[in-house]
Amino acid sequence: MSSKGGGTALSRRNYRLASDTDKPKVTGIVNEKLLSDYLHHVFPASSKHGPASATYRKTLNFQDLGAHLERLLSEDEPAEDGTDQVEGRLGPSTVVLDHTSGFEGLLFVDDDLLGVIGHSNFSSIRATTCAYKGKWVYEVLISSEGLMQIGWCTLNCRFNQEEGVGDTPDSYAYDGNRVRKWNVTTTNYGKSWAAGDIVSCMIDLDEGTITFCLNGQSLGTAFSNIKMGPGLFTYPVEGYLPLQDPPTADLIKAHRLLGYMKTVLSTFIDTQEEKLTEKDIGSWQLKGEPTVLVTLAHIFNYFAPLMCKVYLVEDVLMSFLLGILEGGGSVDEHPLIQQLLDLFWLLMEDFEVNECLKQLMMSLLRAYRFSPIIPDLGFQVTSLMCQGSGVHDFLFSLAENIYLIHYLRLTTAILRHEKSRKYLLNNALNSITFDVLRSVVFFYIKTPLRVKEAGLEELIPTTWWPTRFDKEGKDEKDLRHETADERMRRRAYERGCQRLKKRIEVVEELQVQILRLMLNNKDKGTGEASRYIFLNKFRKFLQENASNRGNPTVLCPPEYMVCFMHRLITAVRSYWDEGKRKSTGAISSEEAYVPPQLFYNGKVDYFDLQRLGGLLSHLKKTLKDDLATKANIIIDPAEIQATSMDDLDEDEESGAAQRPSGAAAMGGALARPSWLSSPTLGRANRFLSTAAVSLMTPRRPLAPPEKVKVRSLPVEQRTEEDIEGSHGNDGLLLGRPLEEPDQPITEKSLLEILDGIVMMYNLSVHQQLGKMVVVSDDVHEYAVALKDTEEKIARCPGRRPDILEELQKSQKVFAEKLNHLSRRLAWINATIYSKEKMLDVYWLLRVCIRTIEHADNTGSLFAFTPEFYLNVAMNSYSALKNYFSPSNSMDELPGYEDTLTQLAAILAKHFADPRIVGTGKLTPLSVQHTLQHTWAQCSAHF
């Protein structure tokens, strides 16, 4: 690092030879003539100088290469006029959001100042550029379907929490959520937008008009005779200038340098024959040849700084890497990406490769998240130059047919590179994979809101819906009465659904591969294994979602959580069963459960979530002796003191909390909310004195095992040893009770991930499963209405053509709606309610049942079990019964009758269990409701 001119300049690695005398010292540098031919081949002179014959051209070596390359790169550089200003526009050349003074309300602005999320009622923000003359345009990428108004305002506008752009006389806005335009008053305008749509905002200051486009299609003039102020804020549309010009000079330079790099990768130096030969670029390997490395070092001296800019990463680097994968085949068949990443880490400064990888992954995330879906799960991206920067601008330029699946394949290829994977897990993926705002995007398959644009009409050309109903109005399941036409139509629809399902399964398999890479625990050669980095980030993700239940803007969307949970189950089960095959004593994933010691040994953080016996601070005090007796665990007195001093005073007249004796009951804890709990009540001084006595005189049998003092560890402070254990340390399984079998289960890190999966289901997955059922209900309601209308048409008298016309209009509307809903239902059944997804939820139900049974065997320590295990056991059963039918039936689940018998027995046993207090979950109504179904279905077993 060096200081220059009062600023700080970062030094770059230098691979140049200092002089000709150094050349003999470097093994592998070719002779002078071959080197000159090679360098001229890689860096040919510009055609404007005319072709240079090999006989007359100047000899080129590494000492001259720097100046030669500098001259080539400056040839096509646009002339600079020394000013960033263009007539009709004021402001910096790079347009970003004004996060210093041009906003109102609580906002979350991205680090690059190009994205924004509102956290308060009608927050508003301006950009850093204004226009006063001519035609200008900017582009906004819609990242959610929420209520937004996007447009223009003068500098005279003053926003507040109730008024934003479009609500004042000097501002104009388009609202695609409500499909209206706003300028104090409002009228219908445009079309509805969806996440992933691009809105172009155009202003003609010469004519005084404002127009909006949605995905390149004009919505018509929205406003005329607009007011002019001291200045106005503002995609490439003919006749309109972008507020921000593309970095033309950098683009030309980056593409030229990439061309030089491709030439190096496709050229073989035959030192025996002293000639150059062409080779397949895909077979290139980083072998340490000095001539090649020094040549590449010269290229990277200019290329590396450019790869820190998001526009160039998307337009140049991402396009190049995607092109490598376009030929098809598995990611393993394209080792060039791994070699290139090795090259990046070798020749770029760490801060450069870090920024490049972060921008590349962010670009892949955006491209994947907002890609519209067509029948082959791909899309065509036209060449876009998104230079505007209003509320949300992402620079995107790909001129080829890029399939959606390639974004996931490239993500997989990058994550296969160990050093890059660990960097991304530790840094960039902290704001991608587990950011509570951006959420788990790579594992989500979005539901199409516009069936036509999603390509489902081509994939499922024939639609079908129930046409026969029983006396109660339910769909008739007996298909014997189908006509030949109805049967043919239903089977054609089912074939279309199967085609869709197979396409989706390809994407899901790639998503599982990405998760398996993140769960790799064998890559310890370069530091902490990926799995343990992932695990700590995953736990933090769960904490954010459990602790911000009242703030939806910072939660992972439930639809994302559903997809993430299913992929994680598949990845965890595959690793679990691989471990079973290597360790014959371990159990298979079919018998998986979470051992009870995770709930009380402090190795796993449950962030103050309610336990079955109350709050953890209360349980540590009242059950400390039982922990010592049954699990050889002594709670660290310092931790007991800390939790006790935080307690509030108890109401003396309400009595102290009851203390359990052995496996006897404990109770008396106050009822609390099941998500966010406050510390329990207690008196620190009185408790600490009794705690000290108890710790000094533990009740244990003769020759007891050595007791272990434990205290809770923050997630970020845990190490692999804390999780997996080592010699004499059981890790997550510390404190095994005598009732728990002494046998290996699986890798301990997988147990914690399994625990997190159960928590995920409780946080929002169950709620989302119930929400998506509404589409099936809508199909049923419209099918009933259509059938009723058709019957009325058949009965309509010929003398009433007016009534017949109205009925036929209704018939057409209902049929069009059913065509749309039946295709959307096919998508939902493939992604949410498929047989495979049902088996995942069923597996989770059995995990919870076994976990509760094992915890129950520990007597009083059962009280430490998190409340959500009982919630998930009941809710997952409810989902299996109510949400997955009629597409899939519980009768088809393996061993479902025995499972329901176990669930019924658990609910009956624990309904009045005094070890369970204050949960508010096992109410008589909820237990009765569940037991009615479980006992009814399992009655043959009693």
In summary, what is this structure?
This protein is 43% helix and 9% strand.
Describe this structure in words.
About 45% of the residues lie in helices and about 10% in strands. With about 950 residues, it is an alpha+beta fold. The strands form nine sheets. Strands 16-15-14-9-17 form a five-stranded mixed beta sheet, with no helix packed on it. Strands 10-11-12-13 form a four-stranded antiparallel beta sheet, with no helix packed on it. It is globular, with a radius of gyration of 33 Å. It starts with a strand and ends with a helix.
Reported for the largest beta sheet, the result is:
5 strands, mixed
Q: List the uncertain runs.
A: 1-11, 23-27, 230-236, 375-402, 431-437, 645-704, 938-942
> In total, how many beta strands?
23
Q: SS-based structural class?
A: alpha+beta
Task: Indicate the proportion of strand residues.
Answer: 5-15%
Summary keywords:
alpha+beta, 4-stranded antiparallel sheet, 5-stranded mixed sheet, disordered C terminus, 25 helices, disordered N terminus, 9% strand, 942 residues
